[in-house]
Amino acid sequence: MAIEKYSFQTESKRLLELMIHSIYTHKEIFLRELISNASDAIDKLRIASLTNPSLITENQPFEIRLEVDKEKRTLSVIDNGIGMNKEDLINHIGTVAKSGTLEFLSSLGDKKDKMEINELIGQFGVGFYSAFMVSDKVEIITRKAGETQAYKWESFGDGEYTIEETQKDTNGTVVKLYLKPVDKENGIEDFTDEWVIQRIVKKYSDFIQYPIKMRVEREVEKEGKKEIVSDDKVLNSMKPIWRKSQSEVSMEEYEEFYKHISHDWQKPLKVIPYKAEGMLEFYSLLFIPSKAPFDFYFQGYKSGLALYVKKVLIMEAYEDLLPKYLRFVKGVVESSDLSLNISREMLQNDRIVVQMRKNLTKKVIDALTEMLEKDRENYLNFFKEFGNALKEGVISDEENREKLIPLILFESTEDPVKLTTIPEYYRRMKEDQEEIYCIASESRVIAENSPQIEILKQKNYEVLFLLNPVDEVMIQYIPEYRGKKVKIIGKGAIEIGSKEERERKKHQIEEKSKEMKGFLKYIEEKLANHIKEVRLSSNLVSSPCCLTGGEFDLSPSLEKYLSKEHPLLTPSKRILELNPEHSIVKKLYEKYKAGIDEKGLNDAIELLLDYALLSEGVLPKNPQKFNRMFTELLEKAL
């Protein structure tokens, strides 16, 4: 095979440019990334060998080797893992194979030159590209397990690379870096120095479960003379960090392990070490990230915990160890009770896995509860990133719903800035208040000024704002809290005040409705294409009217959201409620009774509907006609 030349895909090339020209100073992390890749390659081979034992030789000693050549200034990272073939090299090295990468890079605009490269590493898991921060040239020699042909990949980081056939006796990969000159001011140390390498490995990769070996020189005395000899030295401890007690592990070590398994450069928001004891025993180390990945709420987002059995990695990302709404959690779980040869299908129904899932879910929820109670500021940061995922849990996880409800934060009329929980709302309720009130809307401004909550504000009843489409869906799974019914304003009738007050108002509305029966029927007929009913309401204070729906109708904000996915969705007709005490309604009624200027009456009725629509953030049914009528009205007034 002759040397074949390729160009990096557009987004990969731009990542390379960012890597090479970045002002990022911690360039030593390239070694951590390459060692992590080597460890992953060995993991992949071990997993593949569970179903195809011929891929590895008996008692094959898995290891990672570091080799340096001081004269040629090269550093090689060598593994005996799964290896790559030509197709893998093109797909994994020449391409950033994650959907949305190009769009994300484009969205950075002018920020891309200022954005630290570690953020990109975290977003896309492109640790290999960090090699170009310290190298003029990178060379890969690799052979895939189960295949005989090896390949050589080479690039100067200039947007192009070459691939050619070569010879390699064993499976695995050699990544050889032709290092740049030492430039400590710009973070480039002498990465051929064994002490520098040992320090970096100890700092970032001590927990790697495979031995990281390097030939090191040491002084020995022979026959009274001192000689320099070299031999292999294992640079890492290899003790699984999740098996260590918390007193043995520093926060820095936890953070480095998190970066290793998540490819996220930022520190985790919370670390959750957990050892289950008793009838079921297992080790786990879980992390709550501080930032959501850019594709977290996309359907294709890959989640799951690494599952080990007797220190052997069985699955890199087993999603069934936690419910889907906790997919933001990163970490590892190790059990000694499972079989090494268990399949994914068998795991799903295994009673041990089912119990592990329950324990881990409870542990994460307890950790979040503790964070909310003791570290509100950090919890607010968490909720900003992953709150919508927790709301999914309220909807889907009936078993843990009661524990999840207090973790949901809402904006409310209580405070213009601070978020609140349903338990906090409950503790502030008025003595005569029978229900917990919510209103669904696109924005706080619209919700806060809605005619529908005027009577509640007048009585100083707090109202929770449901400002995200998922909020309205979620709240339907919370019919009550501690005996107080949860009520969405604008869906069905609301009963406010004492029993005597409600009875008095009901009687007044009934009498007024009888008197204005013909007027209400007239409006219904004129607006029949847009509404299903017109009625009087005692819950309006300063507004002439508002729109409400039935108990099971969608709110306008949720309807609008769903219509984006379902353009043919038919908007539901709503109920127009009138304030019989408002001067506008009274004048319209008098105009109706007088039976004159029918056009003026009809225009005013349409404006009334448009007013109600605008008050909840919905455009008038006929914006052009509204503009014309509004202009005419202004001209008459002036």
Describe the structure.
38% of the residues lie in helices and 22% in strands. It has 638 residues and is of the alpha+beta class. The protein folds into three domains: 4-234, Heat Shock Protein 90; 241-376, Ribosomal Protein S5, domain 2; 509-637, Up-down Bundle (Four Helix Bundle (Hemerythrin (Met), subunit A)). A hairpin with a 2-residue loop joins β8 and β9 (225-234). α9 (351-374) packs antiparallel against α10 (376-396) and α10 (376-396) packs across α15. The termini are far apart.
What's the CATH architecture name of the largest domain? 2-Layer Sandwich
Q: How many helices in DSSP terms?
A: 21
- Percentage of residues in DSSP E strands: 15-25%
Number of strands: 23
Low-confidence stretches: 97-105, 110-125
**Shape field:** elongated
Under CATH, the homologous superfamily of the largest domain reads Histidine kinase-like ATPase, C-terminal domain
Distance between the termini: 87 Å
Supply the helix-strand structural class. alpha+beta
What is the arithmetic mean of pLDDT? 87
Number of domains: 3
**How are strands sequenced across the largest beta sheet?**
1-6-5-4-7-3-2-8-9
